[in-house]
Amino acid sequence: MTPRRIIHVANFGFKPVKVYLHNTAAKLSNGWIRAGHHVVNFSDRDIARWNGPFGYRKWGRAKANRLLAEMCENLRPDVLVFGHADTIDPETIAAIRAKMPGLKALQWNVDWIVPADHALGNDPTSVDNKNRVLKKRDVLDATFMTTAGPALATLSTKDHIAAFMPNPVDASIETGRAFEHEHLPYDVFFASNSEDDRRYHCGQWRAMGAFCDDMEARLDNMRFFLPGIRAATPKVFGPAYQTALTQCAIGLNISRRNDAYLYSSDRLAHLAGNGLAVCIDKASGYSDIFSDDEMVFYETEDALFAHLSRLKRDDVARRRIAAAGWKKYHELFNSTMIAQYMLDVVHGTHDPATYSWPTIAG
To answer: How far, in Å, CA of 328 to CA of 323, rounded?
Structure first.
């Protein structure tokens, strides 16, 4: 393994409120460091905000671009990585690369895209995300997405690699082991933005408040922790969020979309990484990687409710599934492995046969 000097441009979240302890950017930087690389983090949004009059990020954008160019000229990185770094312009990247012909550059993205012929492919959030990815594509060597399959292949060109990136888990962040505990304060964890938050689940758009109403009515003997859904249970962030996860036996992994192949929000890493028994829509495709002994898959809400009832009655089964899922997730998707995989792909040295997930698309 050749040690690389990496500048990682992403939102490292230095705001004093709503601390994002489980930040994918931090996990990837941790992974590269553990793999033996030198990493310098550049928090583009914070730097733009700090350099904008009155703290306005858009007014500090030009300065953030100049500072990144200066940093690259001073540090001479081997690899330049962007994660949702919308503050940085493609022209800045092109100028940096013109001065450093040997530089490798890539971007990662943890939102979803769907195939153009998908029945709901006109979902504006998917289109907007794809446009953000495409904005930098032509000045980068590779794009890594947490969506696989045909949708990912649409990002590939003869000069640009599109590859799948699983949501990484980090043992220094996801420290819980819910499966070790027989008695926990809550049976089920599910977080959402609000009661009106709509997600495509089990083949239909559902308001999460109505979904939770139905779930609680059907399973009135279970204890639910639903931050963001009920006014009495506000959203939790940072260490409080991590503590909440360790107090729950089962985690519902319901992303904004659950039918884009291998897409999941990074909540999947939080749930599995902390040893909760993960319940996930089978349409996500994760049954291609995890077995029924490692995660709970369902195709309808009725099936989900039946699984939850079963796990409530059979705590031994809940703990066994949770432990197996925790072990496999940490083995396959730990941040060191994912981070090194990204470097191997962009340098053309990765072996697809060594991974349990699809790698390069197209």
So the answer is: 9
Rounded distance between C-alpha atoms, residue 263 and residue 280, angstroms: 11
Q: Are residues 26 and 42 in the same domain?
A: yes
Total count of domains within the chain: 2
Co-location of 276 and 127 in the same domain: no
249's tokens: 């036996």
165: nearest Cα among 296, 31, 281: 31
CA dist 139 and 135 (Å) reads 9
Q: Show the tokens assigned to 244.
A: 């909440």
Strand-pairing partners, residue 105, are: 80
173 within some domain: no
Sheet with 224-225, side-by-side order of all strands: 224-225, 186-189, 248-253, 277-281, 296-298
pLDDT at 261: 93
If residue 251 lies in a helix (H) or strand (E), which one and from where to where? strand 248-253
Contact in structure between 318 and 250 (CB atoms under 8 Å): yes
* Residues 129 and 212 reside in one and the same domain: no
C-beta of residue 163 within 8 angstroms of C-beta of residue 345: yes
Q: How many residues does the chain have?
A: 362
Is position 361 within any domain?
A: no
Q: What are the structure tokens assigned to 97, written together?
A: 């690369």
pLDDT, residue 121, reads 55
The residues that bridge with 38 in the sheet, in sequence order, are 5
Question: What is the spatial distance between Cα 88 and Cα 47, in angstroms, rounded to a whole number?
Answer: 11
pTM of the model: 0.94
| pLDDT mean values, one per 10 residues, the chain (362 residues) | 95 77 96 98 94 83 97 98 96 98 96 69 70 94 95 93 98 98 97 89 94 97 94 88 97 93 96 98 97 98 98 98 98 98 97 95 85
Contact, 5 vs 41, CB < 8 A? no
